[in-house]
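#data-curation
PF: Archiving a pair of folding outputs for the training set. Convention for this channel: one message per protein, sequence first, C-alpha cells after, nothing in between. First:
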Amino acid sequence: MKPTATAPALTLRPWQDSDVPAVVAAHRDDAMRRWLMRPIDDEDEARAWIADQAKGWANGTHLRWAVEEGGTVVGFFVIKAANPPETLATGVGYWTAAEARGRGIASRCVQAATEWLFGGQDFLPAEEIELLHTVGNEGSCRVAHRCGYVLDSVLAPMPPQFPHEGHRHLRKRPA
C-alpha cells in the first residue's frame, strides 16, 4: 500500500521462515494474546503457524499476509473465503504488533482489502464482508467503524474456540 501524508508504505507479502522471531515476539504481547484464537508460545509453534499460512493459499480458502513497514513485520492480515453454511460472507482479520498499534495499519489493510474484494477482481468474489472480534476488543471495533463496517449482530459464545461473545460487523457491496 502506498504511503499517505501521515503513514509510511505497507507491504503485504507471504509469510516466510525468517519471520519466526517476529511472530514469537508479537505473540508475547498480553493485550494481543487476550484476543487470539491461536496464541503462539515458541519458535516451533511459530514455524507450524507459518506453514499453515501457505495451506490457505493452496486451497483458496484463506489469503494470509505478513504486513511489513520499512522491512519490519508489524502485523498479519487475512481474507477468508465464504464457507457456507458456517458463513455466507467473505471475512477479514488481522493483528498488529504492539509497537505498531495506533498508526492505522489494520484500518489501511481492511480498507484496501474491501476495495479489492468489491472491485473488479474475480478471484474471490464477495457480496458482503464480515469482520468478527470478541466483545471488549475496542481496537477492532474502531477499525470496523473507520472502514464503514456496521455492527450487524452480537454472537453468542461458542466454546472452546470462541469462549466469549463476539461482534459481527458487516459491509455490503455498494449498489
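PF: Second:
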Amino acid sequence: MGLREMKAARTRQQLVDVAVTTFIDQGYDETTMERIAELAEVGTSTLYRYFPSKELLLLAPYAEVVDPGRYLRARPVSEPTGVALAGALLDLGDDYADPSRRIPEIRRILDSSPVPRARVWDVLLQSRADLEAALAERMGLPATDHSVQISAGIALDVFYRVDEERKSGDREDYRALFREALASLSTTTIVLPVLP
C-alpha cells in the first residue's frame, strides 16, 4: 500500500470512528453529516467523497465484520472446508464481539433506524455472494453450484441465529454461542425438499 492509499485508509477510518461515536452519543437521526465533518476536522466535501450518505458511515464497520468470505479466505488452505468454515464463523464472532468495533451498539442503531436498516440487506446480499465465492474456491466448484449455495446459506443461518439469540438474551459471548450453534448442526435433522 502506497503512502496515498495509507493516508486515505486512515482518513476513512477516522471518519467512521467519529461518526459511530457521534451516532451512539447523540443519536443517528440527530447527527448530521456536517457535524461529523466538523468533529472529524475535515471539510464536508471530503466527508462526502468518502461516504456519500450517513447510512454508509454507519454500515461500514458492520459490513467489514459481517463478511464470512473474508474470514474463510484467511483460514489455512490445509484445513478441510467444513473446519475452515466453522473457524471463519468463530473468527467473525470474535470480531463481532470485540468492544473496539462497537458492532452490538451499531446493530442497535440499525435495528431502530429505518433507512440504514433497509441498506443492511444490501450488505447481507454482498456478504452472501462473497461467502459463496470463497466457498467455491475451496470446494473447486462454481459459485452457482447448489452445494456451494446451500452450504453458504447454512453458515449464514448459523450467524443469523446466533445474532438473534444474543439480541434476545443476556449472553454476550459470541464465540460460545457460535460453538453451541455449530455443535448442534451434527445432531440436527435437515430436511431437504425432494420431488416425489
